[in-house]
Automatic annotation (TrEMBL):
InterPro entries: DER1, Rhomboid-like_sf. GO terms for cellular component: endoplasmic reticulum membrane. Belongs to the derlin family. Keywords: Endoplasmic reticulum, Membrane, Transmembrane, Transmembrane helix. It is a multi-pass membrane protein. The keyword Phosphoprotein does not apply. This is Derlin. SUPFAM superfamilies: Rhomboid-like (SSF144091). The chain crosses the membrane at residues 19-41, 96-117, 123-141, 148-168, 174-195. It comes from Deinandra increscens subsp. villosa. The lineage of its organism: Eukaryota, Viridiplantae, Streptophyta, Embryophyta, Tracheophyta. Pfam families: DER1.
Length: 247
């Protein structure tokens, strides 16, 4: 059993493995009271006035209590982050890292701007960690790139992947969770999908081209892969069913 888990972990691509490891260690450290969540959460005043820049990163690593909800989020993180990195971004590790950086930037900016809008400022003021939203963004992007894959929710009903974000959003409403966490992920995911997939097909220009200094950080093996805006994955077989659980 231990060897199987070790093999599964080692077979993960670098970004997925690094993010999953950092998330588990950070959440575990907080649960054991080794680290306090108070030094991790997003606080614009402390970032700007006291130069606590690390908060811009650490707020994406803490997933609160290590309970069943945490396990589901780790499942979604490991599954969809891995699927994106191994398929859509195969041979393009730098581009995948840039996608996460773009998503984190959009999420942080949206929360800061939302905090200044009277109608939603109260809700946004309660958002201290954006880890769940970044995970939701990855789910959204994967669904946009693989809309025809059939899925099953808790074995109750089936649907195509294009509707997965809305199914998860509806589930959040049912269980009484904040929908803003999911909506933020959808906003960031759609912004990336539009600028990386839709806009290039319309204009022939890529506004999200990965900067050279980020590409220099990763030594990707050369792989002949067309840009996702030009080639879509083949539709899966009709009987391909993916079982998902609650987050």
């Amino acid at each position: 059993m231990a060897e199987a888990v070790e093999d599964w972990y080692k077979q993960m691509p670098i970004i997925t493995r690094s993010y999953l490891t950092a998330a588990i260690l950070t959440t575990l450290g907080c649960s054991l009271e080794i680290v306090s969540p108070h030094i991790l959460y997003l606080n614009p005043n402390l970032v700007v006035k006291h130069y606590q820049i690390w908060r811009l990163i650490t707020n994406f690593l803490y997933f609160r209590k290590m309970d069943l909800d945490f396990l589901f989020h780790m499942f979604f993180l490991s599954r969809y982050c891995k699927l994106l990195e191994e398929n859509s971004f195969r041979g393009r590790t730098a581009d995948f890292f840039y996608m996460l950086l773009f998503g984190a930037t959009v999420l942080t900016t949206t929360v800061l701007v939302g905090g200044m809008i009277p109608l939603v400022s109260e809700s946004f003021a309660k958002i201290f960690f954006l880890s769940n939203s970044l995970t939701f963004m990855m789910v959204y992007v994967w669904c946009k790139q693989n809309p025809l894959i059939h899925m099953s929710f808790l074995g109750i009903f089936t649907f195509t992947a294009a509707y997965l974000p809305w199914v998860l959003l509806g589930f959040s409403v049912v269980v009484g969770a904040s929908v803003w966490v999911d909506l933020l992920g959808m906003i960031a995911g759609h912004a990336y999908y539009f600028l990386e997939d839709v806009y290039p097909r319309m204009t022939g220009r890529r506004p999200l081209k990965t900067p050279f200094f980020i590409k220099a950080l990763f030594a990707d093996e050369p792989v002949i892969v067309a840009h996702p805006a030009e080639v879509r994955f083949a539709a899966p077989a009709a009987d391909e069913i993916h079982e998902i659980g609650r987050r």
